């Protein structure tokens, strides 16, 4: 296949008790049905609260099963819990192997690789990084094998959290952080990617649309399909606060990116749905 069409959705935050987010997902589903890409990737936070409400995972999977094309998944912090950090407040829902296994039981995998249109496409579980869980070392060994097998092919990496804001040595992102892949795991991952033909890093998590390039690597932050956080006091403005999705076309000599908002999608503010004290 010399041309591969891929649609990235993210931060769907699905749960039966949040009909507003479900309605936005239906708008995205209709857009996918109308355009029929070769594959859909959900880059995490598929469910609203997998750790405390495992039924959210089943509910989210049922909605994705209705999509007209195949879908692959990587977990987000709302699916399996969040990374431990070296500084600052520890997450209220730390990632655990039990939560990871719950995710895998529903969605089948938490990391994957495939080749398409001359590209090596990799999905990583960024939430197990810095955990010292056995699965972290297993994923690292697996990634090394995939990168070795790529043999110069252009690489597209899909993760839940952004690697960094603007550059690896940003003062804001040099320390560990809940927003980005935490240190020191981030440095290790960047070292593994150094020298590879990395062209694209695609993520979600921030609920803001962003499109930047650093040293010939394009960094796409896909917007949430479910909600935004309108208040800049509650969440700093880094990109564009709007719901939507991202469409890619991969070819052996490059790739195209199209930033899309599905017809009928609404910029729902999280704090209009939740009490501020429960928002995360």
From TrEMBL:
Residues 4-208 form the Calcineurin-like phosphoesterase domain. GO terms for molecular function: hydrolase activity. InterPro entries: Calcineurin-like_PHP, Metallo-depent_PP-like, STPP_CPPED1. This is Metallophosphoesterase. The lineage of its organism: Bacteria, Pseudomonadati, Pseudomonadota, Alphaproteobacteria, Hyphomicrobiales.
């Amino acid at each position: 296949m010399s041309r591969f069409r891929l649609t990235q959705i993210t931060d769907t935050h699905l749960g039966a008790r949040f009909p507003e987010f479900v309605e936005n997902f239906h708008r995205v589903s209709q857009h996918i049905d109308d355009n029929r890409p070769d594959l859909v990737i959900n880059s995490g936070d598929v469910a609203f609260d997998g750790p405390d409400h495992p039924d959210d995972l089943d509910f989210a999977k049922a909605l994705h099963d209705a999509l007209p094309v195949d879908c692959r998944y990587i977990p987000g912090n709302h699916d399996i819990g969040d990374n431990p950090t070296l500084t600052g407040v520890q997450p209220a829902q730390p990632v655990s192997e039990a939560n990871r296994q719950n995710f895998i039981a529903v969605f089948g995998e938490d990391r994957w690789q495939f080749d398409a249109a001359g590209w090596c496409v990799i999905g990583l579980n960024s939430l197990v990084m810095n955990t010292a869980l056995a699965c972290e070392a297993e994923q690292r060994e697996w990634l090394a094998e995939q990168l070795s097998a790529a043999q110069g092919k252009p690489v597209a990496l899909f993760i839940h959290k952004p690697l960094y804001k603007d550059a690896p040595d940003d003062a804001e992102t040099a320390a560990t952080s809940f927003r980005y892949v935490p240190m020191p795991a981030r440095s290790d991952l960047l070292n593994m990617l150094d020298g590879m033909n990395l062209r694209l890093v695609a993520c979600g998590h921030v609920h803001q649309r962003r499109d930047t390039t650093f040293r010939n690597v394009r960094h796409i932050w896909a917007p949430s399909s479910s909600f935004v956080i309108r208040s800049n006091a509650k969440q700093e403005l880094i990109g564009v606060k709007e719901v939507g999705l991202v469409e890619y076309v991969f070819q052996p000599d490059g790739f195209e990116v199209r930033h899309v908002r599905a017809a009928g999608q609404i910029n729902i503010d999280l704090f209009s749905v939740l009490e501020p004290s429960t928002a995360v």
